[in-house]
Structures are given as C-alpha cells and as structure tokens.
Amino acid sequence: MAEITKEIWLKLGLKLLDQEGLGALKIGRLCQELAVTKGSFYHWFGSKLDFDMAVLHFWREIFTEEFIQNAEIGVSSQEKLKRLIINCIDSLKIESRLEIEINIWAHQEPLIGSFVKEVYTKRFTYLIELLEDIYSNKIEAKRHALILYSLIIGVELFYQKLTRKELEAVFLDYL
User: Fold this and answer.
1) pTM given for the model
2) C-beta of residue 67 within 8 angstroms of C-beta of residue 82
3) CA–CA dist 12, 30 (Å, integer)
4) Helix, coil or strand: residue 69
5) What CATH number does residue 166 fall under?
6) Is 91 helix (H, G, I), strand (E, B) or coil?
7) CA dihedral in degrees (55, 25, 97, 131; nearest 10)?
C-alpha cells in the first residue's frame, strides 16, 4: 500500500467537501475513506481545526495562487485576463459545488470566514489590477471586476451545469 501523504488527506478533504459538503469532513469518515486509523490522521494534523485550515490553504493554493500564476504567464493584461477566465471556465466544469460549500462554511464559522474573505479579496484585487491596466478609468475597471466576479458566482449557482460553449458565451466580452 502506498504511503498516505498530507496531500492525499487534503485532496480527500476537498473532494468530500465538494461532493458531500462540510458534514463529510469528519475524522472518522476521512480515515474510513483512506482505510487508515485515526493515528494516521494525527500523524499529519494536530487537530481537526489544523486539518480544516490545511484544506483551506490547499484550496487557496489550487484555486487562487495557481490561477494567478497561470494568468501571469500572459504578456499583456488582456492576455492575463483571458488566461484567468479560461482557468475559471475549466474549474467550473471540474468542480461541482466546492466554492459554494466553502462559502457556506465561511458563514458558519468566523475563523473560516476571515480566511475565505482574505482569499476573495486577493482574487478581486488581482482582477481589478488587470482591469485597471485595460480600462483607463478606475471606476470602469472596478465595475467590470464586479461584473466578472458576479458572473463567476452566478454561473456556479446556476440551476444547471453549462456546457463549455455556453460558459465561453457568458464570458465572451472578456475573452
């Protein structure tokens, strides 16, 4: 049997949160999924809160830091914005409800809420920086940042999954 690494625990945490919600993030359930004892869990995490925060840091790394790093490969702000939007479109097709579950969690627990707010602020600030380079008027840049961020959230909350073609149509003005 392969060694259960910290990353395996974190990937499982994101998967369960995405597929079943916060209620699935129980130590016993995690251990059952990996067919290990609770001692294995405590080898990597000092407490359930440590695990929860590690999962959130992992989520931030994958869905914020890596998105920004990928966007930064672009030369112009327009290219960066396009790369960022395409990454968002791709993630909308991969995950089902992860962002929604994290948002619910953030509203239930102040510590989680504070962390999530920092992530959302970083995302929004990056978006504004790109758009301020594209639009000469800062108010216009912020307006478009609000529109884009609202589109992303709205698409996630939409009653059905959209096809890639439909998602590209939604974001067409920014691609």
Assistant:
1) 0.89
2) no
3) 7
4) helix
5) 1.10.357
6) helix
7) -20
- Tokens representing 107? 């509203």
Nearest to 129 by CA among 73, 72, 167, 168: 72
Q: How many domains does the chain have?
A: 1
Long-range contacts of 124-130 (CB under 8 A, 24+ apart): 124/149, 126/68, 126/71, 126/84, 127/84, 130/71, 130/77, 130/80, 130/81, 130/84
Helix or strand holding residue 122 (H, E): helix 110-134
CA distance 103 to 4: 28
Give pLDDT, residue 170.
Answer: 86
Structure confidence at residue 156 (pLDDT)? 79
Alpha-carbon distance 106 to 111, whole Å? 8
Q: What's the pLDDT tens digit per position in 62-115?
A: 999 999 999 999 999 999 999 999 998 888 766 578 888 999 999 999 999 999
- Domain, as residue range, for 112: 55-174
Over residues 168-173, the mean pLDDT reads 85
Match 């914005």 to its residue by tokens.
Answer: 81
Q: Is residue 93 part of a domain?
A: yes
* Cα-Cα-Cα-Cα dihedral sign, residues 4, 5, 9, 11: negative
Would 33 be classed as within a structural domain?
no
